[in-house]
Design goal:
Layout: E1 2-4, E2 11-14, E3 16-18, E4 31-39, E5 51-54, H1 60-70, H2 97-104, E6 110-118, E7 121-133, E8 136-146, H3 155-163, E9 168-175, H4 178-188, H5 199-210, H6 215-218, E10 221-223, E11 238-240, H7 248-259, E12 272-279
Parallel strand pairs: 8-9
Antiparallel strand pairs: 1-3, 2-5, 4-6, 6-7, 7-8, 9-12, 10-11, 11-12
Length: about 290
């Protein structure tokens, strides 16, 4: 089921429930999706259900475990003073529930968390944060993780569709993994990958990211020859996030994507992430029963 609720500690929440789209492929078990909206304010809008109060971190301990077991492993950072302290190369990148909350659900933000389960197993989750850029609403995917045993089932797309708000105008993600960028474009873009329109990113990415309440988005440095014609790194559109996760798996996925028809965002230097940001015409939110999720 879909569970729409805003659940920060000591604040009010509203909840509605809708049937979730079932995903069945090759006799695989159907998936169910749940969404939680977090809003750091006292005047929750009860339009969609009854007000109630809940305290605690909800499912963030489970989200922390999913991330820590499935996100990736540390790569080799540059020696000090250029590199900050990271985990041991080859060890898993881990994140506690409190750090996840601070990074993905920052204070004074409007954030959402969607999770998908298959046969009772947490198979993936996505976090999104919303803010205003001028008179337009930004929906930025701050974390997207799918369990390694449930990949290539379009679960990432399902999670992102569960996060959609009818007022969203601009969508963005920073990720080292091509699959995350493709999932965002598949869920919300009005273009066919890899024909990604990059003019919006060239003109507006800096302003959109500068307005973000998410520190790692706000502080990321734009990189690639889309922003600097003298950039010779091979990156087209990305950021220097100083995040030295091992790129073996993303580069393997990137090679397959290129073989299947091209990749518009360029190569991936160490310590960098791809950047995908685009706008769409405002539209009514589709009914979940009308979504064709493969």
């Amino acid at each position: 089921m879909f569970d729409f609720s805003y659940l920060p500690p000591q604040t009010h929440a509203h909840t509605t429930k809708d049937p979730a789209p079932a995903i069945t492929q090759d006799c695989r078990a159907p998936a169910s999706t749940e969404k939680t909206d977090y809003a750091q304010r006292e005047n929750a809008d009860p339009t969609h259900g009854n007000l109630h109060t809940r305290t605690g971190y909800g499912g963030l301990e489970d989200a922390s475990q999913l991330f820590s077991e499935n996100y990736g492993v540390w790569g080799q950072p540059p020696p000090p003073p250029d590199g900050r302290s990271f985990g041991k190369p080859g060890s898993r990148v881990k994140m506690s529930a409190s750090r996840l909350r601070a990074q993905c659900l920052p204070e004074a933000s409007r954030s959402s968390y969607a999770r998908v389960t298959v046969d009772g197993t947490l198979a993936g989750h996505a976090f999104a944060c919303r803010w205003q850029h001028g008179d337009r609403q930004v929906c930025w995917i701050t974390q997207l993780v799918v369990h390694r045993d449930y990949r290539e089932r379009r679960l990432a797309t399902t999670l992102l569709l569960a996060l959609l708000d009818s007022d969203d105008d601009i969508f963005g993600i920073m990720s080292s993994h091509p699959a995350a960028c493709k999932a965002l474009s598949r869920a919300f873009g009005n273009f066919v990958f890899p024909q990604v329109p990059l003019d919006f990113a060239r003109q507006h990415a800096a302003g959109v990211m500068a307005a973000s309440p998410v520190s790692y988005v706000k502080n990321a440095r734009l990189c690639g020859n889309l922003f600097n014609s003298g950039d010779a790194s091979g990156l087209k559109c990305g950021v220097d996030s100083n995040f030295f996760v091992d790129h073996a798996e993303p580069l393997d996925a990137l090679s397959r994507v290129k073989d299947l028809g091209g990749w518009p965002l360029g190569d991936l230097p160490d310590g960098h992430e791809f950047l995908l940001v685009f706008d769409v015409a405002r539209r009514r939110r589709p009914r979940f029963s009308q979504l064709a999720v493969q």
